[in-house]
Design goal:
81% of the residues lie in helices and 0% in strands. It is an all-alpha fold and 108 residues long. The longest helix has 24 residues, at 55-78.
């Protein structure tokens, strides 16, 4: 359950990171409400995962999911750079996340 919670936390991190772009400096009510809600949900799921997973592993994976997901969504939604160096760097983050999953003792 901890790994699923961590994955969900990462997805909501993507949501709030992208949501920040739409808040216009927190001046737009509904984008701000949804962004703050995604932040809270993300942290709640992260906290649940931290009950059984090592903090360093869980945090690194949470950040990795958020970073890669946000970069991909930025490419899709905002036409951000898709150059090969950027893609390779994102793949390295994914490899690190997968590596941490495999070297962390099974928990929850």
């Amino acid at each position: 359950m901890a790994w699923i919670s961590l994955f969900i936390a990462g997805l909501f991190e993507i949501g709030w990171a992208i949501g920040l772009k739409y808040t216009d400096g927190f001046s737009k009510l509904w984008p701000t409400v949804w962004t703050v809600a995604a932040m809270v949900v993300s942290l709640v799921f992260l906290e649940y995962a931290l009950r059984t997973l090592p903090v360093g592993t869980a945090y690194a994976i949470w950040v990795g999911i958020g970073a890669v997901g946000t970069a991909i969504m930025g490419m899709w939604l905002f036409n951000e750079s898709r150059d090969i160096a950027r893609i390779v760097c994102l793949m390295l983050i994914v490899a690190g996340v997968i590596g941490l999953k495999f070297v962390t003792p099974n928990a929850g």
